[in-house]
Amino acid sequence: MEIRLSTSDGVPVYRQIVNQVKYLIASGRLRAGQEMPTIRALAERLLINPNTVVHAYAELEKEGVIVCRHGSGTFVAESVSRQPGRDGVQALAARVDSLLVDAAHLNLGLGPLLQLIAQRHRLLKKNQNTSNGIDHA
Questions:
Q1: I need a labelling partner for 58 at 20 to 30 A (CA). Which of 43, 100, 104, 115 fits?
Q2: Domain boundaries, the chain
């Protein structure tokens, strides 16, 4: 599992871990049932405080992305919901609002922003297909 942290983008480290784990699952690089690194191992690899990993894992578990089994380890959840409930849509709405504000500060109009979203979506799908052994290039 490859996670890269940035100290310059203002996103808390635990949130970066949460976002990247979700991306790794969405792209197929992490699969349902796959074991996650231990808290200590991930903290050592990322050179961060183990409490930060605890916070990230707790958030991921709360969202149903991972399952912590005491004595067995931490695993990607077998069935991550693909249908967002009302809470999921509200959470995405807040993120979209933030994205729109960031785009406005960069003087990026809706057209180019939608093109960027479509481009990133294609890349995510390509990564999913490649990691599933399907290459539609």
A1: 100
A2: 13-76, 86-131
What Cα–Cα distance (Å) separates residue 115 from each residue in 11, 111, 119, 126?
A: 24, 6, 6, 16
Q: Which residues contact 75 (CB under 8 A, 6 or more apart)?
A: 33, 34, 35, 36, 66, 67, 69
What band does 116 get if pLDDT is binned at 50, 70 and 90? very high
Name the H helices within 1-137.
Answer: 13-26, 39-46, 50-62, 86-105, 110-131
pTM > 0.70: yes or no: no
Tens-place pLDDT, residues 89-105: 776 787 788 888 889 99
Are the C-beta atoms of 32 and 81 separated by less than 8 Å? Answer: no
State residue 136's pLDDT score.
Answer: 43
